[in-house]
Automatic annotation (TrEMBL):
Protein name: ABC transporter ATP-binding protein
Domain ABC transporter: 5-230
Species in which this protein is naturally found: Plantactinospora alkalitolerans
Domain of life, per lineage: Bacteria
One Pfam family this sequence matches: ABC_tran
Keyword Zinc in annotation: no
SMART domains, per the entry: AAA (SM00382)
Amino acid sequence: MTSVLRARRLTKIYGRRPGLTDADLDIPAGRVVGLVGPNGAGKSTLLGLSCGLIEPSAGSIEVLGERPGTRAAQLARVGFVAQDTPLYPGLTVAEHLRLGARLNPGWDDKLARRRVQQIGLDLAQRAGRLSGGQRAQLALTIAVAKRPELLIFDEPVAALDPLARWQFLQNLMEFVSELAVTVVLSSHLLGDVERVCDHLVLLSASRVRLSGAVDDLVDEHFRVVVGREDLDRLPSGAEVVHAEHKGGQSTLVVRRTGPAFLPHAERINLEDMVLAYMTGVQR
Ligand SMILES: Nc1ncnc2c1ncn2[C@@H]1O[C@H](COP(=O)(O)OP(=O)(O)OP(=O)(O)O)[C@@H](O)[C@H]1O
Protein backbone atom coordinates (compact mmCIF):
# COMPACT_ATOMS: atom_id res chain seq x y z
CA MET A 1 0.00 0.00 0.00
CA THR A 2 1.39 3.43 -0.96
CA SER A 3 0.65 5.98 1.74
CA VAL A 4 0.08 9.53 0.58
CA LEU A 5 0.12 10.66 4.19
CA ARG A 6 1.90 8.83 6.98
CA ALA A 7 1.96 10.11 10.56
CA ARG A 8 3.59 8.53 13.59
CA ARG A 9 2.86 9.85 17.09
CA LEU A 10 2.24 13.20 15.42
CA THR A 11 1.69 15.84 18.08
CA LYS A 12 1.08 19.59 18.07
CA ILE A 13 0.82 21.52 21.29
CA TYR A 14 -0.15 25.20 21.30
CA GLY A 15 1.36 26.54 24.52
CA ARG A 16 -0.22 24.03 26.88
CA ARG A 17 -3.28 23.23 24.78
CA PRO A 18 -3.11 20.03 22.71
CA GLY A 19 -4.02 20.53 19.04
CA LEU A 20 -3.20 16.95 18.04
CA THR A 21 -1.89 14.13 20.24
CA ASP A 22 0.04 11.00 19.20
CA ALA A 23 -1.69 10.60 15.85
CA ASP A 24 -0.81 7.47 13.86
CA LEU A 25 -2.26 7.61 10.34
CA ASP A 26 -1.79 5.96 6.95
CA ILE A 27 -3.83 7.43 4.11
CA PRO A 28 -3.65 5.28 0.99
CA ALA A 29 -3.31 6.87 -2.48
CA GLY A 30 -6.43 7.45 -4.54
CA ARG A 31 -8.85 7.82 -1.63
CA VAL A 32 -11.33 10.57 -0.85
CA VAL A 33 -10.86 11.02 2.87
CA GLY A 34 -13.44 12.61 5.16
CA LEU A 35 -11.90 14.20 8.24
CA VAL A 36 -14.58 14.61 10.90
CA GLY A 37 -14.85 15.47 14.57
CA PRO A 38 -16.43 18.06 16.87
CA ASN A 39 -15.26 21.69 17.10
CA GLY A 40 -11.74 21.89 18.46
CA ALA A 41 -11.03 18.19 17.76
CA GLY A 42 -7.84 18.99 15.82
CA LYS A 43 -8.95 18.80 12.19
CA SER A 44 -7.45 22.14 11.05
CA THR A 45 -4.30 21.33 13.02
CA LEU A 46 -3.90 18.02 11.17
CA LEU A 47 -4.53 19.72 7.81
CA GLY A 48 -2.08 22.53 8.65
CA LEU A 49 0.58 19.95 9.59
CA SER A 50 -0.15 18.05 6.35
CA CYS A 51 0.65 21.02 4.13
CA GLY A 52 3.56 22.35 6.16
CA LEU A 53 1.81 25.46 7.53
CA ILE A 54 2.25 24.13 11.08
CA GLU A 55 5.38 22.47 12.51
CA PRO A 56 4.88 19.37 14.69
CA SER A 57 5.81 19.60 18.39
CA ALA A 58 6.71 15.89 18.36
CA GLY A 59 6.36 12.81 16.17
CA SER A 60 6.60 12.71 12.40
CA ILE A 61 4.56 13.29 9.28
CA GLU A 62 5.35 12.46 5.66
CA VAL A 63 3.24 13.64 2.76
CA LEU A 64 4.00 12.06 -0.62
CA GLY A 65 7.12 10.58 0.97
CA GLU A 66 8.57 13.86 2.29
CA ARG A 67 8.27 16.22 5.22
CA PRO A 68 5.54 18.68 4.22
CA GLY A 69 6.43 22.16 3.02
CA THR A 70 10.21 21.69 2.99
CA ARG A 71 10.77 21.98 -0.78
CA ALA A 72 9.00 24.00 -3.49
CA ALA A 73 8.70 20.83 -5.59
CA GLN A 74 6.87 19.10 -2.75
CA LEU A 75 4.54 22.09 -2.26
CA ALA A 76 3.63 21.94 -5.95
CA ARG A 77 2.35 18.37 -5.45
CA VAL A 78 -0.15 19.46 -2.79
CA GLY A 79 -3.20 21.71 -3.29
CA PHE A 80 -4.64 23.31 -0.16
CA VAL A 81 -7.87 25.29 0.15
CA ALA A 82 -8.23 26.88 3.59
CA GLN A 83 -11.48 27.21 5.54
CA ASP A 84 -12.76 30.47 4.02
CA THR A 85 -11.62 29.70 0.42
CA PRO A 86 -9.33 32.74 0.36
CA LEU A 87 -9.03 34.62 -2.93
CA TYR A 88 -7.92 38.15 -3.84
CA PRO A 89 -11.17 40.19 -3.82
CA GLY A 90 -9.75 42.91 -6.11
CA LEU A 91 -8.53 40.48 -8.79
CA THR A 92 -10.77 39.17 -11.56
CA VAL A 93 -11.31 35.49 -12.33
CA ALA A 94 -8.95 35.80 -15.32
CA GLU A 95 -6.29 37.47 -13.15
CA HIS A 96 -6.54 34.61 -10.65
CA LEU A 97 -5.90 32.15 -13.46
CA ARG A 98 -2.90 34.18 -14.71
CA LEU A 99 -1.50 34.34 -11.17
CA GLY A 100 -2.01 30.57 -10.79
CA ALA A 101 -0.10 30.00 -14.04
CA ARG A 102 2.74 32.28 -12.90
CA LEU A 103 3.12 30.65 -9.48
CA ASN A 104 2.68 26.98 -10.34
CA PRO A 105 5.11 25.14 -12.63
CA GLY A 106 2.63 22.36 -13.43
CA TRP A 107 -0.31 24.72 -14.11
CA ASP A 108 -2.88 23.23 -16.51
CA ASP A 109 -4.37 26.32 -18.14
CA LYS A 110 -6.63 24.35 -20.50
CA LEU A 111 -8.19 22.54 -17.54
CA ALA A 112 -8.63 25.80 -15.58
CA ARG A 113 -10.35 27.61 -18.49
CA ARG A 114 -12.54 24.64 -19.39
CA ARG A 115 -13.73 24.39 -15.78
CA VAL A 116 -14.33 28.13 -15.40
CA GLN A 117 -16.49 27.98 -18.53
CA GLN A 118 -18.38 24.89 -17.31
CA ILE A 119 -19.15 26.53 -13.98
CA GLY A 120 -20.31 29.65 -15.84
CA LEU A 121 -17.90 32.11 -14.19
CA ASP A 122 -17.34 35.45 -15.92
CA LEU A 123 -13.59 35.89 -16.51
CA ALA A 124 -13.93 39.68 -16.05
CA GLN A 125 -15.70 39.51 -12.66
CA ARG A 126 -13.76 40.43 -9.52
CA ALA A 127 -13.51 37.65 -6.92
CA GLY A 128 -14.93 40.01 -4.27
CA ARG A 129 -18.17 40.17 -6.27
CA LEU A 130 -18.60 36.39 -6.63
CA SER A 131 -21.12 34.47 -4.51
CA GLY A 132 -19.85 32.08 -1.81
CA GLY A 133 -20.56 29.11 -4.09
CA GLN A 134 -18.76 30.72 -7.06
CA ARG A 135 -15.77 31.59 -4.86
CA ALA A 136 -15.56 27.99 -3.64
CA GLN A 137 -15.73 26.74 -7.24
CA LEU A 138 -12.96 29.16 -8.31
CA ALA A 139 -10.76 28.11 -5.36
CA LEU A 140 -11.36 24.45 -6.30
CA THR A 141 -10.47 25.15 -9.94
CA ILE A 142 -7.23 26.92 -8.97
CA ALA A 143 -6.23 24.14 -6.55
CA VAL A 144 -6.90 21.46 -9.17
CA ALA A 145 -5.22 23.31 -12.07
CA LYS A 146 -1.94 22.97 -10.15
CA ARG A 147 -2.36 19.27 -11.01
CA PRO A 148 -1.52 18.21 -7.45
CA GLU A 149 -1.33 14.61 -6.30
CA LEU A 150 -3.00 15.48 -3.01
CA LEU A 151 -5.82 18.00 -2.55
CA ILE A 152 -6.60 19.21 0.96
CA PHE A 153 -9.75 21.15 1.88
CA ASP A 154 -10.62 22.60 5.26
CA GLU A 155 -14.45 22.69 5.43
CA PRO A 156 -14.90 23.64 1.80
CA VAL A 157 -18.69 23.67 1.75
CA ALA A 158 -19.58 24.90 5.23
CA ALA A 159 -20.96 28.26 4.08
CA LEU A 160 -22.72 27.05 0.94
CA ASP A 161 -26.43 26.40 0.37
CA PRO A 162 -27.42 22.79 -0.42
CA LEU A 163 -27.43 23.30 -4.20
CA ALA A 164 -24.04 25.06 -4.27
CA ARG A 165 -22.68 22.31 -1.98
CA TRP A 166 -23.98 19.61 -4.27
CA GLN A 167 -22.45 21.34 -7.31
CA PHE A 168 -19.10 21.78 -5.54
CA LEU A 169 -18.93 18.13 -4.48
CA GLN A 170 -20.08 16.99 -7.93
CA ASN A 171 -17.23 18.99 -9.50
CA LEU A 172 -14.77 17.65 -6.97
CA MET A 173 -15.76 14.07 -7.78
CA GLU A 174 -15.36 14.77 -11.51
CA PHE A 175 -11.83 16.01 -10.84
CA VAL A 176 -11.09 12.95 -8.73
CA SER A 177 -12.04 10.57 -11.52
CA GLU A 178 -10.36 12.69 -14.23
CA LEU A 179 -7.06 13.31 -12.43
CA ALA A 180 -6.63 10.33 -10.05
CA VAL A 181 -5.89 12.67 -7.14
CA THR A 182 -6.11 11.84 -3.42
CA VAL A 183 -8.44 14.18 -1.52
CA VAL A 184 -8.63 14.97 2.20
CA LEU A 185 -11.55 17.17 3.23
CA SER A 186 -12.75 18.14 6.66
CA SER A 187 -16.48 18.60 7.16
CA HIS A 188 -19.18 18.74 9.80
CA LEU A 189 -21.73 17.64 7.19
CA LEU A 190 -21.81 13.90 7.69
CA GLY A 191 -24.29 13.32 4.83
CA ASP A 192 -21.79 14.89 2.41
CA VAL A 193 -18.96 12.80 3.85
CA GLU A 194 -21.06 9.65 3.42
CA ARG A 195 -21.83 10.61 -0.19
CA VAL A 196 -18.32 11.38 -1.44
CA CYS A 197 -15.75 9.81 0.90
CA ASP A 198 -14.47 6.24 0.85
CA HIS A 199 -12.08 6.69 3.79
CA LEU A 200 -12.75 8.25 7.18
CA VAL A 201 -10.58 9.81 9.88
CA LEU A 202 -12.43 10.71 13.07
CA LEU A 203 -10.77 13.00 15.61
CA SER A 204 -12.02 13.78 19.07
CA ALA A 205 -10.30 15.79 21.80
CA SER A 206 -7.09 15.96 19.71
CA ARG A 207 -6.84 12.17 19.22
CA VAL A 208 -7.52 9.87 16.28
CA ARG A 209 -10.48 7.72 17.30
CA LEU A 210 -11.08 5.96 13.97
CA SER A 211 -9.25 5.71 10.66
CA GLY A 212 -10.01 3.36 7.81
CA ALA A 213 -12.08 2.53 4.75
CA VAL A 214 -15.68 3.71 5.28
CA ASP A 215 -17.17 0.35 4.22
CA ASP A 216 -14.94 -1.59 6.66
CA LEU A 217 -15.68 0.77 9.54
CA VAL A 218 -19.45 0.70 8.94
CA ASP A 219 -19.32 -3.13 8.75
CA GLU A 220 -17.69 -3.26 12.21
CA HIS A 221 -20.29 -1.14 14.05
CA PHE A 222 -23.73 -2.20 15.26
CA ARG A 223 -26.61 -1.07 17.42
CA VAL A 224 -27.56 -3.57 20.14
CA VAL A 225 -30.29 -3.35 22.80
CA VAL A 226 -29.52 -5.22 26.04
CA GLY A 227 -30.98 -5.39 29.53
CA ARG A 228 -29.15 -2.95 31.78
CA GLU A 229 -28.03 -5.81 34.01
CA ASP A 230 -26.33 -7.44 30.97
CA LEU A 231 -24.11 -4.45 30.27
CA ASP A 232 -21.12 -6.03 31.99
CA ARG A 233 -21.65 -9.39 30.30
CA LEU A 234 -21.04 -8.36 26.69
CA PRO A 235 -18.85 -10.77 24.68
CA SER A 236 -15.14 -9.96 24.69
CA GLY A 237 -14.94 -8.99 21.00
CA ALA A 238 -17.38 -6.10 21.44
CA GLU A 239 -16.24 -2.63 22.46
CA VAL A 240 -18.96 -0.22 23.62
CA VAL A 241 -18.67 3.10 21.81
CA HIS A 242 -21.89 4.72 23.00
CA ALA A 243 -24.58 3.78 25.53
CA GLU A 244 -28.01 5.25 26.20
CA HIS A 245 -30.14 3.99 29.08
CA LYS A 246 -33.93 4.06 29.37
CA GLY A 247 -35.77 2.15 32.06
CA GLY A 248 -34.20 -1.28 32.36
CA GLN A 249 -32.76 -1.23 28.83
CA SER A 250 -29.56 0.05 27.30
CA THR A 251 -29.14 0.88 23.62
CA LEU A 252 -25.51 0.46 22.66
CA VAL A 253 -23.39 1.24 19.65
CA VAL A 254 -20.63 -1.36 19.67
CA ARG A 255 -17.56 -1.99 17.58
CA ARG A 256 -16.91 -5.62 16.82
CA THR A 257 -13.19 -6.08 17.36
CA GLY A 258 -13.19 -9.90 17.22
CA PRO A 259 -15.48 -12.80 16.31
CA ALA A 260 -18.09 -11.84 18.92
CA PHE A 261 -21.71 -13.01 18.44
CA LEU A 262 -24.03 -10.07 19.03
CA PRO A 263 -27.67 -11.19 19.15
CA HIS A 264 -30.16 -8.87 17.34
CA ALA A 265 -27.35 -6.57 16.24
CA GLU A 266 -28.58 -3.92 13.79
CA ARG A 267 -26.40 -2.28 11.17
CA ILE A 268 -25.91 1.49 11.44
CA ASN A 269 -24.92 4.13 8.91
CA LEU A 270 -21.84 6.37 8.90
CA GLU A 271 -23.69 9.29 10.52
CA ASP A 272 -24.87 7.19 13.49
CA MET A 273 -21.40 5.70 13.88
CA VAL A 274 -19.67 9.10 13.93
CA LEU A 275 -22.25 10.58 16.33
CA ALA A 276 -21.75 7.61 18.65
CA TYR A 277 -18.04 8.42 18.91
CA MET A 278 -18.71 12.12 19.35
CA THR A 279 -21.17 11.61 22.19
CA GLY A 280 -19.27 8.77 23.89
CA VAL A 281 -20.31 6.45 26.68
CA GLN A 282 -22.30 7.60 29.70
CA ARG A 283 -22.68 4.84 32.26
N1 LIG B 1 -3.15 29.00 16.97
C1 LIG B 1 -3.63 28.38 18.05
N2 LIG B 1 -3.27 28.76 19.29
C2 LIG B 1 -3.73 28.14 20.40
N3 LIG B 1 -4.58 27.08 20.37
C3 LIG B 1 -4.97 26.65 19.15
C4 LIG B 1 -4.53 27.27 17.93
N4 LIG B 1 -5.10 26.62 16.89
C5 LIG B 1 -5.86 25.65 17.44
N5 LIG B 1 -5.79 25.66 18.78
C6 LIG B 1 -6.46 24.73 19.72
O1 LIG B 1 -6.18 23.41 19.28
C7 LIG B 1 -7.33 22.58 19.38
C8 LIG B 1 -7.67 22.03 18.00
O2 LIG B 1 -8.07 23.10 17.17
P1 LIG B 1 -8.41 22.91 15.62
O3 LIG B 1 -8.65 24.27 15.05
O4 LIG B 1 -7.35 22.08 14.99
O5 LIG B 1 -9.77 22.08 15.71
P2 LIG B 1 -10.86 21.80 14.59
O6 LIG B 1 -11.26 20.38 14.73
O7 LIG B 1 -10.37 22.23 13.25
O8 LIG B 1 -12.06 22.74 15.06
P3 LIG B 1 -13.28 23.40 14.22
O9 LIG B 1 -14.18 22.29 13.79
O10 LIG B 1 -13.92 24.28 15.25
O11 LIG B 1 -12.68 24.18 13.06
C9 LIG B 1 -8.43 23.47 19.97
O12 LIG B 1 -8.46 23.24 21.36
C10 LIG B 1 -7.96 24.87 19.66
O13 LIG B 1 -8.41 25.79 20.65
